[in-house]
């Protein structure tokens, strides 16, 4: 068969491939023996892997023809995301894989071998999975020019390891290979990490978020110091241990640290105003507590959840709009306690005032007992110090707090104390 296929050949081959897949989908596997099913699993996996080079060739051809640029896409990955409706991380991974293991052409259109020909050959033979290939090529890409002469041997060794080990173990072996080839890498890591630093945040319509980041050693150290201070399990309360997982505690610690930062008033202004959490609520929604609030960044959050944010020791402004979008009411952002009030609360509460909690003042926020957004004054008689965990959860756990004779006094829920005996602290 000719190495060059016409448009009709490509269309015909793809049509034949779809027919074969249709036939495979219609197979009744219950008629097969165990050995036949196992053999089919292995054969199908080999076929799946052999399709990767086809994907590489198509991506490189689209890129060489400038199709993404004509479609006004920022890069090939963005074009793939839009065209195939796939996640951008997957799209970019496929582009990187194509550049690493796909057959290339020179500026004059002459065929060139793949950047990593052993990887390309293994994928064409169906013996190397896509994730294994990414582990190998990503490791080799990071090697400096000083050791480039050893890259072919390293590539062959890693492809050999891939016949025995899955991607996770292969990653460990690849890391050892890189350390052996480039023992001085640690001396260059600082600049490399600084160059590779990155943080990506995807916010969902409901305001929740997911993200990833690459951090410098400095960021790693500050995060760990923050977690050391704020992510410890809370002491047992009435024999009940802190129910949060380690990951949940780290999440809460980072949130607490950000609240402390925003509440400090030391962040630079944004748009001419100090960093402020802004909530917009329909007037009727505000009165009924049913519906959604709109955050300053466009997320829709259940109004009861949004109003629960108002108890923190940071700047928050809530604006109520009527059906004509006119402002009917708004809260004041001048709700932060003064330094003198903070010192007085530290002297009184000695840190988190929840019964049994030993969190020190540095871990604690100041809570308005009657929420400021509902008219509660910023006074000592309407304030109590709480750590981030108890600040978030004491109300949902049905605890209440009042100031009695100048001291915080807690009332437990009936599930803990049927008599609900007040607990002064």
Key descriptive features of the protein:
425 residues; 14% strand; 47% helix; alpha+beta; elongated; 3 domains; five-stranded mixed β-sheet; 16 helices; three-stranded antiparallel β-sheet
Summarize the structure.
The chain has 425 residues and is an alpha+beta fold. The chain has 16 helices and 14 strands.
Descriptive report:
By secondary structure, the protein is of the alpha+beta class. It has three domains: 177 residues, no CATH class; 85 residues, no CATH class; 86 residues, no CATH class. The chain is 47% helix and 14% strand. The protein has 16 helices and 14 strands. The strands form five sheets. A five-stranded mixed beta sheet has the order 7-6-5-8-9. It has a three-stranded antiparallel beta sheet with strand order 12-13-14, with no helix packed on it. The longest helix has 31 residues. The radius of gyration is 30 Å and the shape is elongated. The termini are far apart. The relative contact order is 0.05.
């Amino acid at each position: 068969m000719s190495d060059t296929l016409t448009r009709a050949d490509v269309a015909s081959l793809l049509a034949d491939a779809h027919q074969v897949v249709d036939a495979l989908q219609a197979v009744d596997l219950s008629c097969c023996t165990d050995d036949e099913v196992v053999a089919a699993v292995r054969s199908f996996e080999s076929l799946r892997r052999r399709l990767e080079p086809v994907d590489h060739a198509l991506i490189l051809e689209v890129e060489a023809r400038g199709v993404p640029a004509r479609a006004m896409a920022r890069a090939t990955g963005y074009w793939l995301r839009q065209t195939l409706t796939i996640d951008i991380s997957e799209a970019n991974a496929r582009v990187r894989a194509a550049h690493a293991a796909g057959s290339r052409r020179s500026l004059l259109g002459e065929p060139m071998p793949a950047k990593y020909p052993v990887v390309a050959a293994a994928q064409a033979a169906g013996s190397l999975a896509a994730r294994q290939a990414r582990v190998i090529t990503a490791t080799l890409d990071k090697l400096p020019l000083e050791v480039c002469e050893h890259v072919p041997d390293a590539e062959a060794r890693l492809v050999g390891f891939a016949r025995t080990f899955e991607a996770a173990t292969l990653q460990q072996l690849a890391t050892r290979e890189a350390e052996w080839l480039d023992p001085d890498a640690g001396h260059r890591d600082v600049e490399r990490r600084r160059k590779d630093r990155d943080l990506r945040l995807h916010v969902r319509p409901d305001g929740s978020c997911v993200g990833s980041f690459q951090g410098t050693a400095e960021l790693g150290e500050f995060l760990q110091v923050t977690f050391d201070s704020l992510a410890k399990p809370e002491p047992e309360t009435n024999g009940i241990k802190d129910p949060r997982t380690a990951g949940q505690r780290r999440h809460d610690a980072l949130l607490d640290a950000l609240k402390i930062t925003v509440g400090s008033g030391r962040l630079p202004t944004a748009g001419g105003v100090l960093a402020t959490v802004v909530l917009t609520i329909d007037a009727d929604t505000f009165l009924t507590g049913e519906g959604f609030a709109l955050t300053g960044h466009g997320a829709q959050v259940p109004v009861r959840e949004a109003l629960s944010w108002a108890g923190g020791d940071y700047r928050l402004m809530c604006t109520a709009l009527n059906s004509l979008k006119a402002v009917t009411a708004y809260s004041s952002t001048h709700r932060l306690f003064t330094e003198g009030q903070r010192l007085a609360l530290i002297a009184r509460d000695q840190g988190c005032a929840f019964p049994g909690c030993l969190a020190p003042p540095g871990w604690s926020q100041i809570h308005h007992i009657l929420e400021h957004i509902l008219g509660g004054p910023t006074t000592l008689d309407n304030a109590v110090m709480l750590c981030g965990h108890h600040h978030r959860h004491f109300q949902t756990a049905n605890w209440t707090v009042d100031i009695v004779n100048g001291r915080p006094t807690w009332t437990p829920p009936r599930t803990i104390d049927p008599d609900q005996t007040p607990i002064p602290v």
